[in-house]
Amino acid sequence: GEWNTTVRVSSTTLLFYASFVRLLSSIRPGLVKKINRLPTPIAGLDNLSVFLRGCEELGLKGSQLFDPGDLQDTSIRPTSCRVDCVLITIYWLGRAANSCTSYNGPTLDLKEFEGLLHTASVLSFLFV
């Protein structure tokens, strides 16, 4: 029923948040001390916080980071705006990974983000 679907989505969301932290660990081993594996919303927020702090340690600026609320926002703001904020962080993290000597994994095709970056500058003007 509906309850099981809600639990499944919640579990998937928590795994998604933990995957952000694992991504940081693959870019710079040792950057993340611990992934919170508890199946609770607080654990998910903890992992998001660890991810965002780790991004800053890799050189990303606050303006390049999404807000945790972008992943939980239920306002009338279009979903595409919220997703774009997350993708912009992934773009900047990809650039940081490319310049990180300890990382030799797959790389993002940063050209795929060009339209998003233009849209982001327009959105930041409209929604700030």
What does this structure look like?
- Residues 1-98 form the Calponin-homology (CH) domain.
- One of its GO terms (molecular function) is myosin II head/neck binding.
- This is Calponin-homology (CH) domain-containing protein.
- It comes from Pundamilia nyererei.
- The protein has 128 residues and is mostly helical.
- The protein has one domain: Actin-binding Protein, T-fimbrin, domain 1, CATH 1.10.418.
- The protein contains 4 helices and no strands.
- It has helices spanning 2-27, 41-57, 79-98, 114-127.
- It starts with a helix and ends with a helix.
Mean pLDDT: 79
Which radius of gyration do the C-alpha atoms yield?
Answer: 15 Å
Helix content: 55-70%
> What is the tally of beta strands?
0
- Termini separation: 39 Å
Order of helices and strands: HHHH
Largest sheet: none
CATH topology: Actin-binding Protein, T-fimbrin, domain 1
- What's the structural domain tally? 1
Structural class: mainly alpha
* CATH architectural group: Orthogonal Bundle
Name the overall outline. globular
List its traits.
60% helix; 4 helices; 0% strand; single chain; Actin-binding Protein, T-fimbrin, domain 1; mainly alpha; 128 residues; disordered C terminus
Give a brief description.
The protein is mainly α. The chain has four helices and no strands.
